[in-house]
Automatic annotation (TrEMBL):
Residues 4-147 form the Flavodoxin-like domain. The keyword Amino-acid biosynthesis applies. Residues 271-533 form the FAD-binding FR-type domain. Keywords: Amino-acid biosynthesis, FAD, Flavoprotein, FMN, Methionine biosynthesis, NADP, Oxidoreductase, S-adenosyl-L-methionine. The keyword NADP applies. Gene3D superfamilies: 3.40.50.360, NADPH-cytochrome p450 Reductase, Chain A, domain 3 (1.20.990.10), Nucleotide-binding domain of ferredoxin-NADP reductase (FNR) module (3.40.50.80), Translation factors (2.40.30.10). It is an enzyme of class 1 (oxidoreductase). It comes from Rangifer tarandus platyrhynchus (Svalbard reindeer). Its EC number is 1.16.1.8. This is Methionine synthase reductase. Its cofactor is FMN; FAD.
Length: 697
């Protein structure tokens, strides 16, 4: 069999799942993949690798490669490596990302670029899959095209060293598909991480395409009422290309409980887990605000948990009890909810490298497994639909599930499953005769991820306490029936603190309702560089609309204590650009900010209200933080370019961070009289120097 090396670099498992799919399909095409996580560096050696390399690499943080790839990236970035170090290597790379982030697919791009610099050559075009519009739009054609590229590679290399034909093909092809405009290529190498490719435009194009498709199909809906459960011609009459049935590999037994209770600490986590009481909960917004923002205070005094303002931490959260109950009922396992789940690899499985899922703790109860370990809200992938089809008794329902995972049904999958945010429960509701075994859920549902939150306090100001704030996520789901759903974590937290919740107006005067103090589990996150400058005389600009203000409250509390301790000390200017919808409804921390302003900890407070017509005392005509920055163009440029100041941006990654980025480019360009590209380079330098810091989600 023709062998290739298949490496994946994943943060949350998607790259791994895609690599596994490639590995499974390879056999059908007469190839065999040696599949490894990129961190398993003892299992492969690129220096001596003669087989082609296929990589699937996601992006995390702010354009960073996944944690599992850190060692790899560090190793290939060794400046002492000669430019022909990997000249023998032929590779194909699939990057995963989300074009809503500034540095689209940057994890993959960094590796791709460095492999090229070390002489490695592509045997197949790089793909950049976008989670924002659906990874499968790129992943599926990329995988489909991989086999021909491998075929050609092996053909050309049969019995000879010369691969020039392949290389010509690859480099032509890469020119065709590389999103970078050729004239900008040289700039990219200088600008480094800066976003120059128009990934946003590309995403918009795909979205537009989708919009066209969906407007076409909405005509169809009006005529024929296509839905999650029902297809219309031509799909309903088409012969289907459906994916191969994923190989089942887990065997699950349920055993009578022995009576031990598992703790949340048994939820798999590499970091230490702290079980801490909630000591206070405050509603920061009024009841008529569009979004509800809550503050939770945790008592960490009896733990070793420590943090600096600017850090974030993880909240370990469960799935909603009613959703878990529904699944138990639907799987006909309600009476066995306390049974222990024993999982093992099927003795006769044909799945290569089958391994027990790391996120399933040993012998936990069924109820615990569904509540704390599996992301039951995850949008089912096509492979899952394919597997579900084989456990569906009714032939019409089975056909519809097959359609949804078929090549011909791609648009319906995008519309009724992915874009609708359908989850397993929605499918089980929609397809009543579908009765999957528990093992299938373990094979296909990803790990329930803890949710990160930024610390919104300083331990100097609130010793032994940790504050964080969040918007309660709410959205309408209408896959089978229209229901209001809440985010997994924020919905759970909101319910948990209901009985102790205080309105903002009373919160600073009372010491928290002492009713009951529910406990939650948290874990620290590896430290980042989103911290105050070591030198307090350096001026800082903080940009944090909405819940993005969280870390800056911590910064300002910290500064207040430092200023109290060092009354004669030199403290630089502190600017805060805050934004919300309405002054009277969601102006978070209004009293605290006024206090910081009054005592001089905050030297400039600029607040923009996007939905208020009236102009009040603190706000200018700016609608959004980026407008407000533009209004202070001179001062902003002065702080960053003359006074060696810092700029911090926190909050919404989807729009705000990009708009702020663009505003900064304009400001630098205007104030220094340089072209936009030059301004982008200046901003990239600030980023490299860690003076332009983002904490965006
Ligand atoms: C480093 C970091 C720091 C962060 N700090 C903060 C912070 O300080 N404050 C804060 O509020 N958040 C913060 N976040 C975001 C936070 O971690 C969570 O992502 C957020 O609170 C939502 O979690 P959830 O479980 O309630 O929502 P989830 O259940 O995970 O839902 C996530 C999103 O998907 C959407 N969604 C899900 N299903 C559907 C569907 N069927 N239809 C339509 N939409 C759907 C929801 O609208 C929601 O936006 C941070 C994130 C990171 C990475
Ligand atoms: C916290 C977080 C940060 C992310 N940062 C980026 C980013 O900077 N650039 C990007 O293109 N995609 C980013 N993404 C999107 C992921 O790369 C994308 O969803 C990918 O499919 C995840 O694959 P994985 O599960 O293998 O890690 C981010 C996703 C998360 C959850």
């Amino acid at each position: 069999m023709r062998r290739f090396l298949l490496l994946y670099a994943t943060q949350r498992g998607q790259a791994k799942a895609i690599a596994e799919e490639i590995s499974e399909k390879a056999v059908t095409y007469g190839f065999s993949a040696d599949l490894y996580c990129i961190s398993e560096s003892d299992k492969y050696d690129l220096k001596t690798e003669t087989a082609p390399l296929v990589m699937v690499v996601s992006t995390t943080g702010n354009g960073d490669p996944p944690d599992t790839a850190r060692k790899f990236v560090k190793a290939i970035q060794d400046k002492t490596l000669p430019p022909d170090f990997l000249a023998h290597l032929r590779y194909g790379l699939l990057g995963l990302g989300d074009s809503e982030y500034t540095y689209f697919c940057n994890g993959g791009k960094v590796i791709d670029k460095r492999l090229q610099e070390l002489g490695a050559q592509r045997f197949y075009n790089t793909g950049h899959a976008d989670d924002c519009v659906g990874l499968e739009l790129v992943v599926e054609p990329w995988i489909n095209g991989l086999w021909a590229a491998l075929e050609k590679h092996f053909l050309l290399n049969r019995g000879r060293e010369d691969t020039s034909e392949t290389l010509t093909m690859a480099s032509h092809a890469s020119q065709r598909t590389d999103p970078l405009k050729p004239e900008l290529l040289h700039v990219e190498s200088q600008v480094g991480l800066l976003r120059l490719d128009d990934s946003r435009g590309k995403a918009a194009e795909v979205l537009e395409q989708n919009a066209v498709n969906s407007s076409q199909s909405s005509t169809l809906i009006a005529d024929f009422e296509a839905s999650l459960t029902c297809s219309v011609p031509p799909l309903s009459q088409a012969s289907l290309n459906i994916p191969a049935l994923p190989l089942e590999y887990l065997e699950v037994h349920l055993e009578e409980a022995l009576g031990q209770e598992e703790s949340h600490a048994s939820v798999s986590s590499v970091d230490p887990v702290f079980h801490v009481p909630i000591s206070k909960a405050v509603q920061l917004t009024t009841n008529d605000a569009i979004k509800t923002t809550l503050l939770i205070e945790l008592d960490v005094s009896k733990t070793d948990f420590s943090y600096q303002p600017g850090d974030a931490f993880n909240v370990i959260c469960p799935n909603s009890d009613s959703e878990v109950q529904f699944l138990l009922q639907r799987l006909q396992l309600a009476d066995r909810r306390e049974h222990r789940v024993a999982v093992m690899i099927k003795a006769d499985t044909r799945k290569k490298g089958a391994a027990l899922p790391e996120h399933v703790p040993e012998r936990c109860s069924l109820h615990f497994l569904l509540t704390w370990c599996l992301e039951i809200r995850a949008v089912p992938k096509k492979a899952f639909l394919r597997a579900l089809a084989d456990h569906t008794g009714d032939s019409a329902e089975r056909r519809r599930l097959q359609e949804l995972c078929s090549r011909q049904g791609a648009a319906d999958y995008a519309r009724f499953v992915r874009d609708a945010g359908a989850c397993l429960s929605d499918l089980l509701r929609a397809f009543p005769s579908c009765q999957p075994p528990l093992g299938l859920l373990l094979e296909h549902l990803p790990k329930l991820q803890p949710r990160p939150y930024s610390c919104a306090s300083s331990s100097l100001f609130h010793p032994g306490k940790l504050h964080f704030i969040f918007n309660i996520v709410e959205f309408l789901s209408n896959t089978t029936e229209v229901v209001l759903r809440r985010g997994v974590c924020t919905g759970w937290l909101a319910t948990l603190v209901e009985s102790i919740l205080q309105p903002y107006t009373c919160a600073n005067h009372a010491d928290g309702k002492k009713a009951l103090a529910p406990k939650i589990s948290i874990s620290p996150r590896t430290t980042n560089s989103f911290h105050l400058p070591n030198d307090p005389s350096v001026p800082i600009i903080m940009v944090g609309p909405g819940a993005g203000v969280a870390p800056f409250i911590g910064f300002l509390q910290h500064r207040e204590k430092l200023q109290e301790r060092h009354p004669g000390g030199r403290f630089g200017a502190t600017w805060l650009f805050f934004g919300c919808r309405h002054k009277e409804r969601d102006y978070l921390f209004r009293d605290e900010l006024r206090h910081f302003l009054k005592c001089g900890v905050l030297t400039h407070l600029e607040v923009s209200f996007s939905r208020d017509a009236a102009v009040g005392e603190e706000e200018g005509p700016a609608k959004y933080v980026q407008d407000s920055l533009q209004h202070h163009s001179k001062q902003v440029a002065g702080v960053l370019l003359q006074e060696s100041g810092y700029i911090y941006v926190c909050g919404d990654a989807k729009n705000m961070a990009k708009d702020v980025h663009d505003a900064l480019v304009e400001i630098i360009s205007r104030e220094t009289g340089v072209e936009k590209l030059e301004a982008m380079k200046t901003l990239a330098t600030l980023k490299e120097e860690k003076r332009y810091l983002q904490d965006i989600w």
